[in-house]
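User: Assemble these into one structure.

Assistant: Restating your components, then the assembled model:
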Amino acid sequence: MSSQVLTAQQIASEPGLSAWTRFLRAHAAVTRQLSSRLEAEHGLTLSDFDVLIQLYHAPGRQMRRVDLSRSVLLTASGITRLLDGLERAGWVTKARCASDARVTYAVLTDEGAAKCEAAQKTHLADVEELFGAPFTPEERAQLAALLGKLPLAHTSEACST
Amino acid sequence: MSSQVLTAQQIASEPGLSAWTRFLRAHAAVTRQLSSRLEAEHGLTLSDFDVLIQLYHAPGRQMRRVDLSRSVLLTASGITRLLDGLERAGWVTKARCASDARVTYAVLTDEGAAKCEAAQKTHLADVEELFGAPFTPEERAQLAALLGKLPLAHTSEACST
DNA sequence: CGTATATACTTGCGATGTCAAGGATGTTAG
DNA sequence: CTAACATCCTTGACATCGCAAGTATATACG
């Protein structure tokens, strides 16, 4: 590549950047739609739902906050505040760790599990409609494979302690 | 290995959802990295840069705020506030529209153009490193094509006035 | 032990962005 | 002409989230 400044045409057609731009736009568009529906129907944020689902499928329906933050890709402080909200709503409670007094577990309550199941019904359909619809099964697999190549910083698999 | 209950692993391997999950995670990870670098090196947000680039390549280096908001996928109010910042920094100025008193143009200043060029140098490299590196040219094209299928709500073509 | 360092979590602060509401201007229909 | 409506933009109130700094606990090393 030369050091010349690219024109709009060149910018738009440059393969790498084009993918990045579309990635950004697609994220903004799909995310906005999904989150407004989720908010309207269940009073949940995308991140809220994300956390609820993680807990729902976690062994014992509980997770350390650190592991939660790693798997959802929020900051530690982000998780604290998000869980504050979920606790206030009664969907999550805290539990202390016997072996390590530093860690607090986030535990899904029965109400939280119910909420999660209820939200899933509409949300998965929404994801399907807004994100999945334009793709054939092969394309989905392709897309998933491609996205899987991107670096997730340090997403250590949440290992039980 | 085989369990009767649907495990987190199995959920994650469901093709549609897997793509969506990876999409979310990848966006969070890549975006966070890119924006912190852009902030550190140039004091710009990803959105700031996005707007500057759009203006840079626009005819006359100016755009109506509506068109800007449509192409960058921010709310109208988001654009107002973003441009407030760019104006305060001296990279953008306002211009009235002769034929329609409602519209205000955002015009890139020479300083803004210089800023944009300077930021491009490092930012494009960062995008390349964090988003482009894991892909072969074919994969980039594939990814761009796939992402292009996603709905962008209503991205009307910016019509000249 | 005792000090140094790493880890888990919380909190204050600031930045970004959305929504709802409002004001100003343009456009259309009666 | 006027009323109704649409469009462009701004503002105030609010939520989310990251960073930096602080606290508490654990571990490692002398």
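The helical segments of chain B are 8-13, 15-42, 46-57, 65-72, 76-88, 110-132, 137-148.
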